[in-house]
Design brief:
Blueprint lengths: L5 H11 L17 E4 L5 E8 L13 H10 L8 H8 L5 E6 L4 E8 L3 H13 L5 H21 L2 H13 L13 H6 L2 H11 L6 E6 L4 H10 L20 E7 L4 E10 L8 H12 L7 H8 L7 E4 L21 E11 L3 H18 L3 H14 L7 H14 L6 H11 L2 H11 L5 E7 L2 H10 L13 H11 L10 E5 L7
Parallel strand pairs: 1-5, 6-10, 6-11
Antiparallel strand pairs: 2-4, 2-5, 3-4, 7-9, 7-10, 8-9
Helix pairs in contact: 2-8, 10-13, 10-16, 11-12
């Protein structure tokens, strides 16, 4: 005689009693939505983020997170071809796109509320029912490969230098390859890899829905109910990379060209929400506020000496600096990088420009900000930061990023302005001493004079500068100091890489 299990007994009892067993609980999305209602806005902005960034790429499959997400955003669904999706979106004057970064994948879009139902159905299809078609995979694979082997290597030495900096600093960690992947990794990815990655990482337990603008009360519930169709699961998240630099090291990318691009930096232990982040923001703004001609590096290298088009610094990831004017959203990271970006200078001035920038960083850390510089920069940021989020979509992006960083209301930007109002110069200088150490640097250089520059750096050869037009005596006197400023980089810490070898593996 077989014994009844507890579940079978419960079913039998329920049938004898003439009642139905209780229904299983309905699946639910684990994360509360991020809602930013703006009733006066006639559009609705969408955000759907997953912790499915490139740090989740399996070894040898670098680029899998990127291809999976782009296939969802720019490929067919089981209901529509990609051409049919574009045809339906066109009369709405709308679309959706994806940003793949190291930690997060974020799908975003915006539509007029007159088209809300049709648009949200298409967006949900992309998330819930991607077709992962073979022809879409090959199209997007080839585009990614072209970006690495042609666009990144040959169209912008500045972006190439930044990429070389990041991959060198974080080599050997899950941050150690670009979000788009590597050449070998992209070539190795199969459709089954994509489907497995999707099933594992796109789950109802990890998705965060964000909505902003003129949506009604029913929309969040409808979208959450649909997203509950995603499978359950929380994939193991790798810890943030632990990187310890010792001294200074240089990677020189050997590439023909009339100018030299330079980036340098080091890992930064703090991020948004940390109390020291805000005084460091002031110091960094003074040193190299992005696209701001009043910042110090700009004045020293561009304005006084005319060596390039600009010089900037950052305390958190800032992609697309060549065209972006304010900090981006949807690129949150648990491990940040302090970075200086020296836009291309004439090849003959590369050694001098590097010395000038490193010297200014050293002076800032050693001496701190003077009272006048602190007050001017703080007052500037109080108003300039108002431009960081001037649309509903951008404010929503900041709110979603706040969720990532664990920053509660009123949010990062309001906290920034609140801290600025009470911040002191002493706090700024103390934060500088705690977190910025220019003695430990990775320097990335893109130049055609790779061997000669490597020898000049190692030998501490003097690097005098010449000008086509006369310069004031004060500038010339300082030039003599810059030209002899020690960088302390031994030859064995300088590596030369041919451009065609970058991003292969």
């Amino acid at each position: 005689m077989r014994l009844l299990t507890a579940a079978a007994f419960a079913l039998l009892f329920a049938s004898c009693a003439g009642t139905r067993p209780p229904a299983p609980p309905a699946a639910r999305v684990a994360n509360a939505p991020v809602l930013l209602p703006v009733p006066s806005d006639p559009t609705v902005s969408f955000s759907l983020s997953f912790p499915a960034g490139s740090q989740m790429d399996p070894p040898g499959k670098e680029g899998l997170a990127y291809l999976t997400a782009t296939l969802m955003a720019e490929g067919a669904t089981t209901r529509n071809s990609y051409a049919a999706i574009l045809e339906q979106l066109y009369p709405m004057a709308a679309g959706y796109q994806v940003r793949v970064d190291v930690e997060q994948v974020t799908f975003t879009g915006r539509v007029h509320r007159d088209h809300l139902a049709a648009y949200s159905d298409l967006l949900l299809d992309a998330i819930l029912r991607p077709a992962f078609a073979a022809d879409d995979l090959e199209r997007l694979r080839q585009r990614a490969l072209a970006h690495l082997t042609r666009t990144l290597r040959y169209s912008s030495d500045e972006e190439l230098g930044k990429a070389a900096l990041y991959t060198t600093v974080f080599a050997g960690t899950p941050y150690g390859h670009l979000p788009v992947g590597t050449v070998a990794g992209l070539k190795a990815i199969t459709l089954e890899d994509v489907r497995r990655f999707y099933r594992t990482h796109y789950t109802r337990d990890t998705v965060t829905l964000g909505l902003g603008g003129g949506f009604d009360d029913a929309l969040p519930g409808r979208l959450l109910a649909a997203l509950a169709q995603l499978p359950a699961g929380v994939p193991a998240l790798p810890p943030p990379p632990a990187v310890t630099l010792r001294g200074r090291q240089v990677v020189i990318v050997a590439k023909p060209g009339p100018a030299t691009a330079i980036s340098f930096g080091f890992p930064l232990a703090i991020r948004r929400g940390h109390d020291d982040f805000y005084p460091l923001w002031v110091a960094n703004s003074w040193l190299g506020e992005h696209r701001n001609s009043s910042s110090h590096l700009y004045q020293v290298i561009r304005e006084a000496r005319g060596l390039n088009y600009g010089d900037y610094s950052y305390i958190e990831h800032f992609p697309e600096g060549g065209w972006r004017t304010v900090p981006p959203v949807n690129v949150p990271r648990r491990q940040q990088l302090f970075e200086v970006w020296i836009r291309p200078v004439p090849n003959a001035a590369a050694h001098f420009a590097l010395r000038a920038a490193v010297r200014e960083l050293e002076k800032l850390v050693a001496n701190g900000l003077e009272d006048v510089a602190f007050a001017l920069t703080r007052d500037f940021l109080l108003t300039y930061s108002l431009h960081y989020a001037d649309t509903t979509a951008t404010r929503l992006g900041y709110a979603v990023d706040d969720r990532f960083y664990g920053i509660g209301p009123p949010g990062h930007l309001a906290r920034l302005r609140g801290r600025l109002a009470t911040l002191t110069g002493e706090e700024v200088n103390a934060a500088l001493r705690r977190h910025l150490n220019p003695e430990h640097l990775v320097i990335a250089i893109v130049t055609e004079r790779a061997e000669a520059l490597a020898e000049a750096l190692a030998s501490e050869a003097e690097s005098p500068i010449t000008y086509d037009t006369p310069k004031p005596p004060k500038v010339l006197a300082e030039d003599a100091l810059i030209a002899r400023h020690p960088l302390r980089i031994p030859r064995e810490r300088i590596r030369i890489v041919p451009v065609d070898e970058l991003f292969e593996r």
